[in-house]
Every structure is written in C-alpha cells, then in structure tokens.
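Hi Y.,

Following your request, here is the sequence exactly as I used it, all 162 residues.
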Amino acid sequence: MMLRNTILQILKFFYQPFSKVMPWQTFRYLACGGGNTVLDILLYFVCYNFILRQQIVHFGLFDMGPHIAALFMSMAVTFPTGFLLSKYVVFSESNLRGRVQLFRYFVLVGICIVLNYVLMKVFVEQFHFYPTVGKICTTALVVVFSYLTQKKFTFKVKQQQL
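Below is the corresponding structure, written out as tokens. Let me know if you'd prefer a different format.
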C-alpha cells in the first residue's frame, strides 16, 4: 500500500502539465506501462546481447532464435510488474475479483506473447530489422492493443445490479 501511494504521489506531481490534455487514468497507464515497457526493452537488450550473446538457444528437439528467447526472458520479469502496476495503480477502480483480473491478464499476456512472437518474426526475419528495433516496433503495436483490452476487459468496472 505504501509503495502504491508513493507511485501515485510521484505520478500526480508529473501529471499536472498533462491534466488538461488527458485523463488521469490514461496518464497512469502511459507512465506505468511506459516504465514497464522501458524495463522490458532494457531487459530484452541485455538478454539478447549479453546473456544469450546473440546465439541460438538449443532445447534438444528444437532451437530458438536469440531474439525470441530474449523476448520470453524479459517477459518473465515484466509480467508480474505489469500486472501489479495495472491492478493497483492504473485500473484500481475495477471491482472484479483479483483472481478474475489475474486470469484475464494472463490470457491477455498470452495473446500479447503470440502477437510479440509473430511481429518479431515478421520484423526481424521478413523485414530484416535489427532485433532491438523490431522489438520497439512490436511493442508500440502491442501496447495499443493491451491498453484497450485492459480497460475494456481485464480491469473493467462491472456494473452493480440494483
């Protein structure tokens, strides 16, 4: 609770110049999602270049390209941070049960993983983008999809029965 309040206080300070052009929730999403996205890209870069050293990962029966393996490695960290920020900072008005939110978030992340995978394959293997540039392009597309899905499905506010 203290960490949530600290994050909200920091965001409120930076929100003032934006308060006339965007709603508070949208700013919170952009700030939290943006921070988590920067963390994701940084982790991706480190995993791809320094942990995997741009080498194919061998799993016995199949091989995985380093650009895809780094994608999964970075998401292992950003999944929980993204959920917690979304639940407690961005969409805290949602009255759905926590386990419902977590399940829906898990489904959304699964869809986003598939989108990330497909888009990374297209950008890197078809369009020959450098993997980090491909990741940035992929992220931009997936973020828009993710925001709309979180707002309208994962963390929606359920209408109360009268």
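The radius of gyration is 17 Å.

Thanks again,
Q.
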